[in-house]
Every structure is written in structure tokens, then in C-alpha cells.
Amino acid sequence: MVPRPTLTLSNGLLMPSVGLGTWQQRDTSTVKAVVCQALNVGYRLIDTASAYRNEVAIGSALAGVFADSASGLRREDIWITSKLAPKQQGFDKATAAVHESLRDLQTDYIDLYLIHWPGASGKPPESAKNRKFREGSWHALELLYRQGKVRAIGVSNYTRMHLEEMKEYAKIMPMVNQCELHPLCPQTELLHYCQSNNIVFTAYASLGEAEFLNGNLSLAQLDTIVARRQDLTKAQVLLLWGLQHGAAVIPKASSVHRLQENVAVLRKGLLSDDDMCDLDSVDVQKHRHICWDPEKVA
Hints:
The protein is of the alpha/beta class. It has a domain at 15-209 and 247-253: TIM Barrel (Alpha-Beta Barrel). The protein contains 11 helices and 10 strands. The chain has helices at residues 28-41, 55-67, 91-104, 129-146, 160-166, 188-196, 220-228, 234-244, 256-263, 273-280, 282-285, and strands at residues 6-8, 14-16, 20-21, 45-47, 79-84, 112-115, 153-156, 176-180, 200-204, 248-249. It has an 8-stranded parallel β-sheet with strand order 3-4-5-6-7-8-9-10. Strands 1-2 form a two-stranded antiparallel ribbon. A hairpin with a 5-residue loop joins strand 1 (6-8) and strand 2 (14-16). Helix 3 crosses helix 4. The longest helix has 18 residues, at 129-146. The radius of gyration is 19 Å and the shape is globular. It starts with 5 loop residues before the first strand and ends in a 13-residue tail after the last helix.
């Protein structure tokens, strides 16, 4: 699949296929600097969440950019994604959470709002109450979508089971499912399910939380591809792998060099079929989640 700069959601909106992830970035001055640098080098999607505790800093950074006529950027030029924390699950709490995010982000609408996790805080993974809470949250998002407070709605870390279950209560099916995706966690079945059900897949942890870059996790296939494709870095190979599987990618970065490296991926040549097969074969040897595994959430 040829990577595209945007992916079309089921409601017709065009979402950038490469964005800036901001998980674990909480220092206000750092967050503001990274967001401004990212926009300056070409990013147009900023991914955050209530649980990241950086929405205020992001909102402040964006407000400054929009107020600066020299930037040439307006609110409608930037795609903002945020997410509902597990402690905010349920209709009333979800409604309040979106309004809080709107206030913190200093915006009249959020482009994409996701339920961050299928479980609710304080509930065991096996508890049937998890479904009740996420169902209530979804009904809140559907209402906020109809009100125009959010332009698109979706989920994160949902398995096929969670998505199939939604067909029993959702009037609007998720437009996006954001999940961990990298060669050690290729999500092949879930990716195909989402694509066949018109749900755009967004990959997080594409770089294995930097484990593939810092040497903590070694992939011989990745090393081989970089050796024969000297125009690509390891990060770019991993991002292209996700993009060529039809997913959007939201890598984290803080330095200008890394920001430029990641966003330049769409201007690079495609991975060959052999390259893709080599990375696809990694899971045959060793499969693992580096982040969270939602399979046990009832």
C-alpha cells in the first residue's frame, strides 16, 4: 500500500497520516517548544490525551501559533486528537472530560476524540462493568459529535471483541482505532478487521518506545534493511512499514532533528516487498506488546 499524506475517515474527514505523539511529555516549556517546532517543520496532527496531562501546554502553544500571523496557520489547519482517561469512563464523566479538554486546548472543537482504554479505573479487567462504562462513554461521544464539539470519534486499544460488541449499542461506529503497532506487535488480524470495517487504524509505539533505536531491542531484519537502504534511518523504516500497512503513525520526538526525520518519511521511497516481508516475519519469531495488552479486558 502506498503511503498517503492523509487518510479518509468514514465521515469523509481527511486525517493526516503522520502526526506528533506527546505521551510522557509533561514539562510545560518543553511541550510548548516541541509543538511549535513540530508545526514549523510540517506536522499538522498533534496527538494528546487527558491522561498525558499536557493539554494545557499544547493549548497554549497552539493559541500562540494561531495568534501569530507570520505562522500562516489557522485552527482549521491543525488536527488535534485527544482521549478519554479510564477514570473518566461513563456518560456524565465523559461529557465533562470533553468539555475540560476543549477548555484546556483553547479550542471550540476537537478533531478526533477517542476512548483511551476499554476498561474503567477501579474495575478489574474481567469485570462486566467495563462494558457498561465504555458504552456510556460512547453514547456521550456520539452526542458530542452530533453537537459539533468533536469532529470525529473513535477508540484506542480496542480488540476485535470490543469493536464487535459496539455493533450492539453504537449508532455511530468508531472512525479510528489507535493501537500499538510495530514488527513485534503487528496486529495483523485487528488491522485487517479495522480496514474491512472502514475504521482507520492509527499506530502508536511504532518505534517500540525507542527500544528499536537505542539498542535495547535488536531486530536483524531492521538492520539488514537499513544497510541496503542507506537513505533511510531505522525510525523511517519502521514508520514506513506502518504507513505501508495502511496505518497512520504518531511517533514521539523532542529534538528538531528527530522531528524532521520522522515527518520526512512521506517524502522517502517505499520499502520493497522484500523489506516488508522481512519485517512482517519478525512476529513469527517473537511476539510481544511493549505497551499495554487489552486482550484481558472484558
